[in-house]
Amino acid sequence: MADLGSTSSWGAPGSAIHAQDEPEILRETVPCPGCSGSDFELILSTADHLTRLGGEFNLVRCTACDLVITNPRPVMESLGYFYPSDYSPYEPEEAAGGWWRRLLERSALRCHYGYPKQPAGLWTRLLARLAMQKFPTRRKRHEWIPFRDGGKLLDVGCGGGVFLERMREFGWNVSGLELAADVARRVELRTRIAIHVGTLPHADLAPQTFDAVTMWHVLEHVPNPRELLKSAADLLRPNGLLVIEVPNIESGTFAEFGPHWYGLELPRHFQHFSPKTLAATLPAGAFHNVDVQQIGGRSWIKRSAERAVAAGSTEYARWLSAGKPFFTEQAVRTEANNQADIIRLVAERT
Fold this sequence. Notes:
Helices cover about 30% and strands about 20% of the residues. The protein is an alpha/beta fold and about 350 residues long. Strand 7, helix 5 (about 180-190) and strand 8 (about 195) form a beta-alpha-beta unit. Helix 2 (about 100-110) crosses helix 3 (about 120-135).
């Protein structure tokens, strides 16, 4: 994925809705997906910035386990209206950089993450050293995951498919899973990569057949995250990798901007994880060597400021006039304070 600001798709795409044709949005009140509790405290209420459908939605925190959720939330029959056909994650992304970037990345992955082919020669080691200097931050390395023998990778909620193309180029045997059938077909035709339509569990995906399962900004979209992660665990071979990225509800940017935070996305995001609640969602005993990192989202901070200014909060106009170095500094600071916009979890199957 070229842009950390993008999110993977989950709801089936709907049609663009004109105000005079606004549909009825049905909602349901649900127990906490983390602990089945029913006692919540209200954090805020806000409208969907993208469609403006359905009025305001509540962001609440479970008083028992601290998981933050959207509640009430749209029922599945109404959810498609919040995923219009021009929803940005459905659009093909441009791969970051050109051949030089890919050469540097491939060298670093071979030398530090076990990618084929092995062993790496002197020239590759020199390029890898240069790559580590050129891509020094977590943000620039967020898709660098360890290679596993067998090299079979499934990307859940694969969206436009750019991540799959990159991983295929780097040596993985890749396939995708996408709920939106038309999106899946477009990606399959463009990339010649097998894209399964649906969600997990999936009849065409056999247990213990994958060496890595990735979910880039998917888990926050699903109605039952525990069930999805259990299905993902079943697909992994022993020591296979689960890689998850989600927005961080404990980020400094959310604390600053509240309803204008770029990572909020009500009501498309059903869950709003913290590092603690994300790790607690993993199936008990299924994973070990769980590594949770926080990644500063420079573009998220900028887009949050843009939304705030567009909503009338003119005090953030000076942030926008400060330019790219200011937002880079803010992103680095959020990482140092463990209040970054994005959580990245990597775990090994037991």
